[in-house]
Amino acid sequence: MLLRKILYMNRVLKTQYYNRAKLKQFQLDALREIVEYAKRHVPFYKQKYKHTNPLHIKSLKELSKLPIITRDEFLDAGVNVYSDEFNYVNKEELKERATSGSTGEAFKIKYDERAWDYLEAVYARAFFNQGYNPAFSMAYYWYEPLKRKFHNYFGLFRRHYIPCSWSIKRQIKELKNHNFRYIHYYSSMIYYISRVISKRDAEKIRPRAIFAHAEILSDAMRRRIESTFRTKVYDSYGTTEFVRMAWECPICGEYHIDEDSIIFEVLDENDKPVRPGQMGRVVVTGLANYLMPIIRYELGDFAILSGKKPSCGRSLRLMKEVVGRVHDFLVNDKNQKVPPRTVIDALDPVEGLDIFQIVQKEKDKVVVRYLSRAPTKILRDMVKSKIKQLLGKKVSVTLIKKEPRISKRGKLRLVYREF
Predict the structure, then answer these.
(1) What does the alpha-carbon distance between residue 87 and residue 96 come to, in Å, rounded to a whole number?
(2) What is the pTM of this model?
(3) How many C-beta atoms lie closer than 10 Å to residue 337's C-beta?
(4) CA dist., res. 322 & res. 291, Å (int)
(5) pLDDT of 104 above 70
(6) Could you give the C-alpha distances from 68 to 41, 63, 299, in angstroms and in order?
(7) CA 216 to CA 238: how far, in whole Å?
(8) Pseudo-torsion of CA 324, 325, 327, 333, nearest 10°?
(9) Whole-angstrom distance, CA of residue 95 vs CA of residue 75
(10) Dihedrals φ, ψ of 398, to 5°?
(11) Residues 6+ apart with CB under 8 A from 259
(12) Within 13 Å, how many C-alpha atoms sit on residue 148's CB side?
């Protein structure tokens, strides 16, 4: 419904500037409502919350009274995670998205049309705040054809589909031929392009901004992409379950959390909130989707909250960075976790390395898939040396000259662990 979309857009442009007290009250009211609804209408939560009274939640700190839900637990519940009012909803008005399954079994998230319109407004707000002008077309790297929407007929929010099934060479050709004002790409894939594109071709691709998403964006990745295309890269953090959750602010330099659509917790191993600057587990509560409520859901991600106060005038809290998923961390010979950013940034400067994928098969066994136009012994020795510096001298490093594995949805996991 177009009118509802406009109203929601107007609302979220205002809520980001609420003072902290008003924003917290907004979250608390939304939390009570969705918990009460879930307890009444969702079989999964009827069981979970049988001894819980939502009205007894007096503050956001008391969210901790509710149990944390794991992905496997939610998946095992099957149809019991849907509202019992699901059968009365017009199925044509439902929105459905499937998780990628990159770290486990994929499952479908369903949204009622009202929730989807609201979450789309939250999603669009980030683009506006990062300088996007909807009158210009955006290159959009995606895994399925994009459906034409009502506003597209007026020349607004046009997305030019670039299939993830295309070769890197073909993607570069498409970007070069159109010279888009904006580029929306998975972080790893635009990084891949930035490593292999010729200077001559890069000169023909000069967007106003590149919007990276879906994967880790390390400092070295950002520097290389920005240097190649001579523009700013703006990162964002989202999931299929909650759509957009945080986005990089051009003024603050860190990520605003979309607190008017989610409650974002970063917890330690004892389920206690960590201090700003400390890494913790990400647990999220959605405030918009009543058809399939997701409350205190552990994503399997690690993040670090910021201790900074926003300087842009918005009250939305800041997150310093997403560190990675559980299996994005490698393990060194001292049983210490090595963040994926550290690994990527160590290998980024290696000259002649077109792209790489670091896979830790076992604690002492690493396989590197890579491409290089000039694979020399010096290059291979340098890659091995850098990995051994991070993981330990005794680790076995095998290099395979082969394109890294890219998922059916176009994701290239640059670093991951298989155990």
Answers:
(1) 15
(2) 0.95
(3) 16
(4) 28
(5) no
(6) 19, 10, 10
(7) 11
(8) 40
(9) 18
(10) -110, 125
(11) 23, 27, 316, 317
(12) 4
pLDDT band at 97 (very low <50, low <70, confident <90, very high): confident
pLDDT exceeds cutoff 70 at 100: no
Structure letter (DSSP) for residue 79: G
Residue 105 in this model has a pLDDT that exceeds 80: no
Quick one: pLDDT at residue 226?
A: 98
**DSSP β-bridge partners for residue 286:** 262
- Pair of tokens at residue 251: 């003024």
The C-alpha angle with vertex 285 and arms to 273 and 325, in degrees rounded to 5, equals 65
Taking the C-alpha atoms of 101, 107, 112 and 113 in order, what is their torsion angle to the nearest 10 degrees? 40
Mean pLDDT of 27-56: 92
Average pLDDT over residues 348-353: 94
Residues 6+ apart with CB under 8 A from 66: 35, 48, 49, 52, 295, 296
Q: Are 245 and 239 in contact (CB under 8 A)?
A: yes
DSSP code for 60: G
- Return the structure tokens found at 79: 């149809």
Calculate the average pLDDT of the chain: 94
Query: What is the CB-side half-sphere exposure of residue 315 using CA atoms within 13 A?
Result: 18
The model's confidence at residue 319, banded by pLDDT at 50, 70 and 90, is very high
- Rounded CA-CA distance 292/96 in Å is 11
pLDDT at 91: 72
Q: What residues does 69 pair with on adjacent strands?
A: 297
Q: In the predicted model, what is the mean pLDDT of residues 5-32?
A: 97
Can you give the pLDDT at residue 274? 98
Name the token pair of 243: 């759509």
CA distance 35 to 236: 28
Length of the chain, in residues: 419
What is the rounded CA–CA span in Å between residue 235 and residue 253?
Answer: 10
3-state secondary structure 127-142: HHHCCCCCCCCEEEEE
Average pLDDT rounded to a whole number, residues 373-398: 94
Token readout for 201 is 């071709």
